[in-house]
Amino acid sequence: MADFLSQFTQLPSGEGPSSDMKAFREVFGAAKNIVVLSGAGMSAESGVPTFRGAGGYWRTYQAQQLATPESFKADPSLVWEFYSYRREVMHSKSPNPAHKAIAELEARLKPQGRSVTVITQNIDRLHHKAGSESVVELHGCLFRTRCTKCGDITDNNESPICPALKDKGAPDPNAMSADIPVSDLPSCSKCHGLLRPHVVWFGEPLEGAVLSAVDEALEQCDLCLLVGTSSVVYPAAGFAPRLAARGVSVAEFNLEPTPVTGSLKYHFQGKCGEILPEAVKRHPSEPEQ
Ligand code: BJW
Ligand code: ZN
């Protein structure tokens, strides 16, 4: 334990967030309703590429270039290749120690009358796979489709999602675009309309029910763990500063500082798969199981 704590040197007071793990552990031990707000960095150690930075390219495109309704309208085949590739990649990916620590935390705190709610920007389902039960998917899910004609939303775990996308979507910058005709792209079983991934692209509103669930979780929250997000995409980027402004302790776990770091109580720099499990392990004040 001494070795683990010694890697975090405390910043002088008044100069930004603290990295005093011992102080964080005391706040953690007393928290009743914990919110975990996660981003792509949460899944990085599972081998899932993040959005921004060097790993965020597919062919010659930055991931966020393709995550727009305009791109889908202009070239649905290209955007489906991108999402089909990401779906196929996920079949070989598993939750990492950070996902597992959060899931175990929820199960451990529940009998104590304490809650853990995950609000994730990720669409990869790894929190569910790890066993987390209370999960709000802010930006949708890679394994759900929505009909562009009738609006029907369906779970879809098919591999490949349609015959025309079999073996397509190679991420190599030299890969040729498959140019699949719309009639051969995934289609609705009810009305034959073109399906799209049930995810939230730039410029699109988040679902009302999702935002209500977020409001409720943030309202109850007395400790927030902000894990692996660059905190540049709204509305998610506003959640932690909103809590911090209310005096709620927010602890950020990231490889680097982000635009919101300065407004938070704690910042722990490093890989979340290494730091989080130690940070949320059983506190001495908790009953032994
Ligand atoms: C590690 C690690 C390790 C790595 N351990 N850490 C207010 C102000 C300004 C702009 C706006 C605003 N409100 C709305 C906007 C516009 C826009 C926006 O925010 N733009 C900004 C870029 C400026 N927002 C929207 O358009 C949103 N819609 C909206 O607000 O609608 C309003 C509306 C109302 C009524 C009618 C119409 C509209 C929608 C945003 C949707 C975002 N969608 C995407 C794609 C989802 C589908 C998919 O996955 O394909 O969501 S974009 C992409 O970014 C994805 C992510 O969820 C999201 C956030 O990225 P994330 O998770 O933070 O990843 P990275 O890669 O950026 O960061 C990884 C981090 O991990 C880094 O910090 C690393 O250091 C760290 N890390 N390894 C710990 N091992
Ligand atoms: Zn339909």
Task: Give a verbal description of the structure.
The longest helix is centred in the N-terminal third of the chain and has 15 residues, at 76-90. The chain starts with a helix and ends in a 10-residue tail after the last helix. With 289 residues, it is an alpha/beta fold. It is elongated and about 60 Å long. The strands form three sheets. A six-stranded parallel β-sheet has the order 5-4-1-9-10-11, sandwiched between helices. Strands 7-6-8 form a three-stranded antiparallel β-sheet, with helices on one face. It has a two-stranded antiparallel sheet with strand order 2-3. Helix content is 32%, strand content 17%. The model is unreliable at 1-13 (pLDDT under 50).
Task: Please tag this protein with its features.
single chain, 289 residues, alpha/beta, six-stranded parallel sheet, three-stranded antiparallel sheet, 11 helices, 11 strands, disordered N terminus, binds ligand BJW, binds zinc ion
Topology:
Layout: H1 2-6, H2 21-30, E1 33-38, H3 41-44, E2 57-58, E3 61-62, H4 63-66, H5 69-74, H6 76-90, H7 97-109, E4 115-120, H8 126-130, E5 135-137, E6 140-147, E7 153-155, E8 195-199, H9 208-220, E9 223-227, H10 236-245, E10 249-254, E11 266-269, H11 272-279
Parallel strand pairs: 1-4, 1-9, 4-5, 9-10, 10-11
Antiparallel strand pairs: 2-3, 6-7, 6-8
Helix pairs in contact: 7-11
Bound molecules: ligand BJW and zinc ion (ZN).
Zinc ion (ZN) is lined by residues 147, 149-150, 152, 188, 190-191, 193.
